[in-house]
């Protein structure tokens, strides 16, 4: 009871005795614990020795003799280092090109006046609604025609332009005082120099917010790479994990599946736990990716 | 259209331009004005060009290609393409697998959006104040948002495993008959829905948390002094204030219900007996497993048309949001 009072010490005085908010809070605590159960099972099953047998795999109480065998097995069977490399190449390739396209387009919308501005703005806005994953069939045909079927470049290309990123950068650039740019203009800086030395350095928080959204969403992409990639050595983590799971499921190797899943999600989870605040605020700005 | 707007432009700009080009013949004057307007716009066009190329190829071009592909069909996979008009659309609409997928998708959309939005609101209300405890709880509820749907599926594959899986191990013993969560056509779709709710509630919670900050503190206090209990404050102050957030989250939840189907691939492949087949999975099957681009494009076209209606709605939602700020 004391603990609960402590949690409510900043609530308005008169509401502190209300029972409903406390019941809601208690329910939320229970649900948050339930939300963690799949993660808990993943950790416990990863460390459980195979000798415990199939009937104990579901046990949430950790084994007294933890082992790293499952992680070793998953690492060896699953070709995960290769998948990690592919996913890293895909995510960083997309992000690098996006940085260029969204900076240039964001600047045009924020600072330049041009014919057809409203029309082009709406063309960009439409992309937010036409979720790329729905256009997999025509885009797969285009990627094949460009000779990029079964290449990582083919996986990356549809995401090179980002309306969300463009709007984010437009907003960031608009907040920068025009006087700064005027000063550089007097010193004879070209358009690209002004973008590079004034606008980009002052917008780093927006770039990092965009990087978080872009990398998490492409790290997690599954359907599109599944369609574009054919060779096993070009699979990203998600496709690799699904193949690995299908194989290990046949042999009931649940400890290995848990270990494989853990390896796939660990990088994102660790980064999130370190930069928690930044992640949450970027996801709030994301809305539609 | 064009001539009207051109004349409109001219009359607006003429007074300022007249002194400079007074001696030039009027027609030439218009041409000069347009070239100079284009020249002034050129840097902006160059900056937009990289983005516009990719948008043209993979968004607008893709829509055009869907439209055309939906009108053609091959008799056999090797036969030449032949114009069939609306036959593909008719064939898709007559395909029980497609109509089944649409019905499943509607159940799935409603059955995931309502619980996950409701839970998100509960979480946001309970965790609105910021302190160490609420931050930890928020992080716990947000974790599933970060992980790939494929990874979530791998975990839930075991949770739903008959007899030895997590669910049966702990609560299955309490039931008279152990259900086959993913194998029973009557249950499988609901099992799939549980994963989506688990994965998305924490995401929608963020928007409600942001929305709750807009609820004015003094109004809440005043309502309180007037004797409004927690439910009355929720009904008459908080919920009206959260209306734009609700609209926004409903749009995202609906989009997710159509586009987020990775767990169907990993866990059920649309089965048992098409019970978990969703529209996007149907499109994938037509294109990749049956090599039927005509049917796949027709199904894509119908889905896009349905989402266009939603697009109109979400434009209004966004306008509301902009206006609210």
Can you walk me through this structure?
The complex is a heterodimer of chains A (289) and B (325). The two termini of chain A are 42 Å apart. Chain A is an all-alpha fold and 289 residues long. Chain A is globular and about 75 Å long. Chain A is built from 15 helices and no strands. By secondary structure, chain B is mainly alpha-helical. In chain B, strands 1-2 form a two-stranded antiparallel ribbon. In chain B, helix 3 crosses helix 14. In chain B, 39% of the residues are buried. Chains A and B meet through helix 2, helix 4, helix 5, helix 6 and helix 11 of A and helix 2, helix 4, helix 5, helix 6 and helix 7 of B.
Biggest interface goes to: A-B, 105 and 106 residues
Strand content of chain A: under 5%
The pLDDT mean of chain A sits at 88
Overall helicity of chain B: over 70%
- Number of helical segments of chain B? 14
Strand order of the largest sheet of chain B: 1-2
Q: Show unreliable segments of chain A.
A: none
SSE series of chain B: HHEEHHHHHHHHHHHH
Distance between the termini of chain B: 35 Å
Helix content of chain A: over 70%
Strand content of chain B: under 5%
- The number of E-state strands of chain B comes to 2
Individual helix count of chain A:
15
Radius of gyration of chain A: 24 Å
Content-based structural category of chain A: mainly alpha
Cα separation of the termini of chain A: 42 Å
Shape of chain B: flat
Largest sheet of chain B at a glance? 2 strands, antiparallel
Low-confidence stretches of chain B: 1-22
């Amino acid at each position: 009871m004391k603990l609960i009072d402590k949690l409510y010490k900043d609530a308005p005085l008169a509401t502190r005795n209300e029972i409903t908010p406390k019941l809601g809070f208690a329910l939320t605590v229970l649900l948050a614990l339930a939300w963690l159960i799949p993660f808990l099972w993943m950790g416990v099953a990863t460390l459980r020795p195979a000798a415990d047998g199939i009937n104990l795999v579901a046990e949430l109480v950790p084994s007294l003799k933890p082992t790293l065998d499952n992680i070793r097995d998953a690492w060896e069977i699953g070709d995960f280092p290769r998948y990690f490399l592919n996913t890293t190449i895909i995510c960083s390739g997309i992000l690098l090109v996006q940085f260029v396209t969204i900076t240039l387009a964001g600047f045009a919308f924020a600072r330049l006046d041009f014919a057809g501005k409203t029309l082009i703005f709406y063309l960009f806005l439409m992309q937010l609604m036409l979720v790329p994953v729905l256009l997999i069939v025509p885009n797969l045909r285009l990627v094949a025609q460009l000779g990029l079927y079964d290449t990582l470049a083919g996986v990356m290309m549809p995401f090179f332009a980002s309306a969300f990123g463009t709007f984010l950068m437009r907003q960031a650039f608009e907040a920068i005082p025009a006087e700064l740019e005027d000063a550089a203009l007097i010193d004879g800086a070209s358009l690209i120099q002004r973008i590079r030395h004034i606008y980009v350095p002052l917008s780093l928080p927006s770039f990092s917010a965009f990087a978080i959204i872009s990398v998490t969403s492409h790290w997690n992409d599954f359907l599109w790479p599944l369609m574009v990639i054919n060779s096993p050595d070009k699979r990203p983590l998600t496709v690799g994990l699904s193949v690995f799971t299908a194989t290990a499921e046949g042999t009931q190797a649940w400890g290995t599946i848990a270990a494989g899943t853990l390896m796939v999600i660990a990088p994102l989870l660790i980064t999130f736990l370190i930069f928690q605040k930044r992640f949450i605020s970027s996801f709030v700005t994301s809305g539609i990716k | 259209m064009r001539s009207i707007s051109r004349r409109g432009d001219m009359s607006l700009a003429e007074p300022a331009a007249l002194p400079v080009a007074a001696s030039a013949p009027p027609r030439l004057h218009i041409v000069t004005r347009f070239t100079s307007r284009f020249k002034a716009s050129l840097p902006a066009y160059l900056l937009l060009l990289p983005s516009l190329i990719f948008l043209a190829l993979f968004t607008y071009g893709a829509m055009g290609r869907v439209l055309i592909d939906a009108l053609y069909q091959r008799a056999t996979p090797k036969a030449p393409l032949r114009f069939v008009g609306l036959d593909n659309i008719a064939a898709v609409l007559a395909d029980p697998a497609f109509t089944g997928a649409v019905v499943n998708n509607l159940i799935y959309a409603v059955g995931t959006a309502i619980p996950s939005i409701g839970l998100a609101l509960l979480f946001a209300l309970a965790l609105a104040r910021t302190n160490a405890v609420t931050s930890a709880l928020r992080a716990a509820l947000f974790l599933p948002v970060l992980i790939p749907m494929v990874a979530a599926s791998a975990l839930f594959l075991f949770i739903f495993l008959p007899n030895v899986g997590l669910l049966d191990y702990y609560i299955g013993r309490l039931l008279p008959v152990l259900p086959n969560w993913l194998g029973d056509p009557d249950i499988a779709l609901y099992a799939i829905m549980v994963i989506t709710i688990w994965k998305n509630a924490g995401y929608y919670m963020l928007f409600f948390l942001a929305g709750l900050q807009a609820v004015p503190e003094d109004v809440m206090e005043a309502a309180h002094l007037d004797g409004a209990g927690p439910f009355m404050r929720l009904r008459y102050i908080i919920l009206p204030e959260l209306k734009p957030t609700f609209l926004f989250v409903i749009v995202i939840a609906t989009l997710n219900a159509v586009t987020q189907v990775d767990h169907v691939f990993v866990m059920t492949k649309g089965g048992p007996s098409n019970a978990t087949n969703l529209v996007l999975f149907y499109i994938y099957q037509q294109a990749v497993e049956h090599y039927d681009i005509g049917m796949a494009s027709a199904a894509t076209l119908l889905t896009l048309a349905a989402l266009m209606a939603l697009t109109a709605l979400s434009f209004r939602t966004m306008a509301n949001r902009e206006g609210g700020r």
